[in-house]
Amino acid sequence: MSQPNFDLTGKVALVTGASRGIGQAIAEAYAAAGARVVLVSRKQAGLNAVAEIIRGNGGEALPIAAHTGSDEAVTAVVQQATETYGGIDIVVNNAATNPHFGPLLTAEESQWDKIYDVNVKGYFRVAKACV
After folding, report:
1. Distance (Å, rounded) from C-alpha 64 to C-alpha 42?
2. Does residue 100 sit in helix, strand or coil?
3. Which of 11, 27, 38, 105 is the most buried (most CB within 10 A)?
4. Residue 74's domain is classified under what CATH number?
């Protein structure tokens, strides 16, 4: 996917929700463009699989299992990424959860709390920790 106008050589990209789907595709594309990619998701096995794909294509990836719903976990991710790569240049907040499927009025408050904690506050936590 290397394109002359999309060269990320020397950059470090942190991608949450990177173990599958859109997050995986973004991580693979950034790695193909030369970025070193920090892969973040809750499940280590999925992250390891994505990291192997990236490495198999000549890229560099650091898979870290963490929950963006936790301040401590996000801080630890950023600390490990910074120790490994010297900093973070690009942040892709892609992690999300949806524990309720159906009409909004049938959702439990605890489900809404989880959605808000990960899908809104998680994005804030990651951005704040990376600055």
Report:
1. 8
2. coil
3. 27
4. 3.40.50.720
Alpha-carbon span 20 to 11, nearest angstrom: 22
| Closest-CA residue to 129 (of 48, 23, 14, 51) | 14
Give the whole-angstrom CA distance, residue 41 versus residue 3: 28
Query: What domain range includes position 109?
Result: 12-130
- The verdict on residue 34 lying in a domain is yes
Tokens found for residue 15? 């991608």
Q: Residue 76 class from Cβ within 10 Å (0-12 exposed, 13-18 middle, 19+ buried)? A: middle
Q: Which two tokens stand for residue 45?
A: 């096995």
User: What would the pLDDT profile of 97-115 be if each residue is shown by its tens digit?
Assistant: 999 999 989 999 999 999 9
Distance of alpha carbon 23 from alpha carbon 25, whole angstroms: 5
Q: Could you read off the pLDDT of 52-75 as tens digits, one per residue?
A: 999 999 999 999 999 999 999 999
pTM exceeds cut of 0.70 = yes
Domain membership of residue 6 (yes or no) is no
